[in-house]
Design goal:
Blueprint lengths: L2 H4 L2 H7 L36 H4 L1 H13 L4 E5 L2 H10 L6 E5 L4 H13 L3 E5 L4 H7 L5 E7 L11 H10 L3 E5 L4 H4 L9 E4 L14 E5 L4 H13 L5 H11 L2 H19 L5 E5 L9 H7 L7 E6 L3 H10 L4 E2 L9 E3 L1 H5 L9 E5 L5 H12 L2
Length: 381
């Protein structure tokens, strides 16, 4: 049994797998800014490192911890979540076919229909939760990847990872799951059949809205993973050592932050579910959510810190509610310790599948009663 499997995830996160600064016995490893490493006289590299682009020591600890959390064989850090996702697609070949959901991270969807198309990739978008449409979209001999995001941002539809895995296996495709929102604290996609897991580590993994980072974790080190590694090395889309160190610092409190945010989000969802000025609360932890059965199978320990509300009165009414909020800051992104609100349709533009009356809430770790009071005052204003 390896050290990463011996203890609970909370223990490995808090203790950083027991890593220390061996030079001075500091309980926290240091920052290694050197970009290059000296050869021996015989031309060898005794440290096993040549250049910092993909071999910086500050990557080792968070990558090993992420691989352990997701029950994977290996992990790579990237300069952002988009860099991680794009690297996966660039490891495909022109003419390859991808199936992805219609509701997903908007910037990545835009990349697929613009740069991805220019790259020679073909993408079919299917309705979230429609397994019949999914199975009809995969093409034997042509479909090479299924990309899914669950819960799906910002409507929080929960797709069945196992069902998507079965659809991928039928045609020999790779299943990649964006696990940014659920995090490995609540969902481990590899256990449900995923081949690769992606994170925008900017969000919950870092948790403090001060680091831009991404990560990929693989179920097994195969030829496709080797190709991803080559693309990362060639493109250089990696973190600086200080950012990697900050990411590791944030990850130490991941479990308690996610659980607190999940508790707060559930309290808010229940408090607003029957509010007279709320058309609907979109939160997968509610028993009224259409995907509650799937959610309960895939998520454990909580249902995440993200939810959306649809405000009665339409677009302007929802914008007015956002303007009256005090504790919820009007800003993009998610997963930080502070609570954020965003009117997604106005951010995504005219082609968005997002309802115009929807406000997306990233629930932080503040007092739940304060957050609920802030929302109710804004809704009743």
């Amino acid at each position: 049994m390896s050290k990463k499997d011996k203890y609970a995830p909370e223990t490995n996160l808090a203790g950083g797998l027991g890593w220390m600064d061996e030079s001075f016995k500091g309980v926290i490893p240091g920052i290694y800014p050197s970009t290059t490493y000296e050869r021996e006289k015989d031309g060898s590299y005794p440290s096993g490192r040549v250049y910092t682009r993909d071999q910086n020591p500050n990557y080792d600890q968070p990558e090993q911890i992420l691989a352990g959390l997701e029950k994977g064989a290996d992990a790579f850090l990237f300069s952002s979540g988009m860099a991680a996702a794009v690297t996966v697609f660039q490891a495909l070949k022109p003419g390859d076919h991808i199936v992805a959901p219609k509701v997903m991270y908007w910037a990545l969807r835009n990349w697929l229909v613009t740069f991805g198309a220019d790259w020679g990739l073909e993408t079919s978008f299917v309705e979230n939760g429609d397994l019949s449409e999914l199975n009809n979209a995969v093409i034997p001999g042509k479909t090479k990847m299924l990309w899914m995001e669950t819960p799906a941002n910002p409507t929080w539809v929960v797709d069945d990872i196992k069902a998507w895995s079965e659809a991928a296996k039928k045609v020999g495709a790779v299943l990649v799951v964006d696990n940014t929102v659920a995090t490995p604290i609540l969902t481990r996609p590899i256990e449900h059949g995923a081949d690769i897991v992606m994170h925008s580590a900017t969000k919950y993994l870092n948790g403090h809205s001060d680091v831009l980072a991404g990560a990929l974790i693989t179920k097994e080190e195969n030829d496709f993973w080797t190709r991803i590694k080559r693309v990362r090395n060639a493109g250089g889309a990696v973190l600086g050592p200080f950012e990697a160190w900050l990411l590791m610092r944030g990850m130490r409190t991941l479990s308690i932050r996610v659980k607190k945010a999940s508790d707060n989000a559930m309290a808010i969802a229940k408090a607003l579910e029957n509010h007279e000025n709320v058309e609907a609360v979109l939160y997968p932890g509610l028993e009224s959510h259409p995907d509650f059965a799937v959610t309960s199978r895939q998520m454990s320990g909580g249902f995440g810190g993200m939810l959306s509300i649809r405000v009665k009165g339409g677009e302007q009414a929802s914008m007015d509610v956002a303007a009256r909020l005090v504790l919820f800051k009007r800003a993009t992104s998610l997963g930080g310790v502070e609570s954020l609100v965003e009117h997604r349709a106005s951010i995504e533009g005219p082609d968005t599948p997002c309802p115009v009356d929807l406000l997306r809430l990233s629930v932080g770790i503040e007092d739940a009663d304060d957050l609920i009071a802030d929302l109710k005052e804004a809704l009743e204003g």
